[in-house]
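The instructor's notes for this session suggest beginning with a concrete chain rather than abstract definitions. Hand out the sequence below and ask the class to guess, before any prediction is shown, which regions might be ordered.
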Amino acid sequence: MILPGSTLGLLGGGQLGRMFTVAARTLGYGVTVLDPDPIAPAAEFATGHLEAPYDDADALAELARTCAGVTTEFENAPADALDAIAGKVVVRPAGSSVAVAQDRRREKGFFSQRGFPVGAWATIDSAAAIDAALARVKLPALLKTARFGYDGKGQARVNSRDEIARTLEQWKHVPCVLEELLPLEGEISVVLARTAEGEQAVFPVAENHHANGILDVTIAPARVGDAMAREATALAGRLAAELEYVGVLAVEMFIVSGRLLVNEIAPRPHNSGHYTIDGCRTSQFEQQVRVLCGLPLGDPSLHTPSVMVNLLGDLWNSGEPRWQYVLKHAGARLHLYGKREARPGRKMGHVTICEHTPERALEVALAIRRDLGIGAAGQSFEPRETTS
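After discussion, reveal the predicted structure:
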């Protein structure tokens, strides 16, 4: 057990790392962040900052020498870097688990081989593989780079064989995954924590709405029936166990024709779990600290229905947003990530609204979005037929 007063190491210094660092510092730990960015958001709260590439041998050795445990805040931290220090310091999650989530081919293969429900998919490693992929996946479809894609980046809708070939050429023929475009009735996610002994604590199922490939709004608890919520929780728990995962894991799922399909996993806290900071007895970030340190898991239960709204860089186009529109609501909590430059599509912060019912929380959230000028043309937040 790693007790308060120790120093924890963190690969990555973005907003997830910032929130982990706040949770760790609140519990009495020091935090050393390894991130090449001199103004990494997490470094502002950390007790140490190693300004170096994630695979820098000297920086990794320093992390292993001075920290009692090491974790990561994003899945693209080199799995080899985690493996390199695993024999010298506690590392959670393991590099082997992170490696599955880093590559969509390995991820989809893991789901399929272990019997998890997934949509039709195929690997395309070269133009010569297009026809074989189209024998398995109907068009229209989504073509996604196997690695380094997130928030709508590294993916394109394709409607013909020629579009696939052109996109592959534009992307310099990097390995890709082709996924059938599904008629979605909804999207949900489950965030859980799993200890080295296999104990799990699962947060309430969250309902997610996206705009332009980026998470826009999360509603917790999800407006689905009890049976579907239990099924989603069971799927996520089984996946974590099959992966022998230790840490905080997010599992994203689609609802298609009343059925759940596993979409992808994130080996870290997740954007759709930010509501846990204000709405749950234990946040996903405190849970990450607890798992890393071998402490008892906290209570993941929801004490207040919550809705989270992402704040993207577009909001700063006309200057600093009018935060009074957020702060005038008693149930609203503003979280800004300390990023110096606001760019379109960049996650700059979020707002969580906690109210006595999900309906009231959503009503206030939509009012805040309108007042701030956040638009999602044609997007409906009405519940769909997902209550089976």
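Then share the key points. The mean pLDDT is 94. The radius of gyration is 21 Å.
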